[in-house]
Every structure is written in structure tokens, then in C-alpha cells.
Amino acid sequence: MPDEEFEGAEGFRKGDIANLSFREIVLMHLRRITQLSCVEFRGGYWNEKTHAIGGMGFTEKIYIPDSRECYVNAVDMFSDLLLPIYDKTAKKEIEDLETSFDNKYKLFEKQEKKGKDIMQKWKQFKLKNKRQLFRELSLLLKRLKYLEGKSFGEEV
Predict the structure, then answer these.
(1) What DSSP character marks residue 3?
(2) Domain membership flag for residue 6
(3) Structural domain harbouring 118
(4) Less Cβ around it within 10 Å: N or C end of the chain?
(5) What confidence tens digit (pLDDT) does each residue in 122-132 have?
């Protein structure tokens, strides 16, 4: 069987990622979040393209993801990645953000049960909340001096 290779978004071959340090993984994810945040945030939708092959036409449906949800998910993953290195300040601030998020979710749930269409407001709130979370994670990384040569107990 030939060597399998896959090229991910960052252009790594399958075995290369195993050699990355924790710091490099963090910086890669930080880069990915930065890329996701530099686009116009929009909802997901289905894009239909019609193709003609051999005189017959067919329609291909492709889902274009919601860029807001992509950002939200990337920030949540970044938070999960950094969880083992949270300091006291990060633990408190992020716990407060999560509590606020949960309380707001309950309010949105009540409005939805009353038949109100609040999906757009919910997505905007969620995006704003995750941006606050990202800021807290960035402050954590600053406190840990992640851009300096020695970080996370590693030696350069």
C-alpha cells in the first residue's frame, strides 16, 4: 500500500503534525481564528450550480457554511485547547462569560417558545460572546508570554 498523504488547510502531511510543539499548535490555531475573523460574517446557505454533461443537465447543491458559526466553533476549540494552561484570572473571567452565556441562552429559549423569531439576535449575541472569550484567551496568552522565545515550559 503506498504512503498515504493528506494535505490539510495548513499544508501539512499526515506525519508532520505529530512533530509540532504545543506552542506551534496554539499559534496555528490562533492564525486560523484570525483568518476566520477577517471575512464578512454571513449566514450559511445552499448554492446550486447547474452543469451540462453529455447533453444532460444536473444540479449540484453545495452548502456554504455560516462564517459566524465557523468563527464561534474555532474560538470554542481554542478555549478547549488552552484549558490545561488557564491561570486563575482566565478561569474566573471565562467562567463568568460562560455563566452569562448560559443565562442569556435561557432567555432566548423562553422567547423562542413564545414563537418569536430570535435566531439572528441569538447568532449576533453568540458571536459577540465568543469574541469576548477570544479576547480573554488572548490576554491569557499575553500573561503567559506566548510570543517570547520560552513559552509553555519549552526551550527554544
Answers:
(1) P
(2) no
(3) 16-143
(4) N
(5) 999 999 999 99
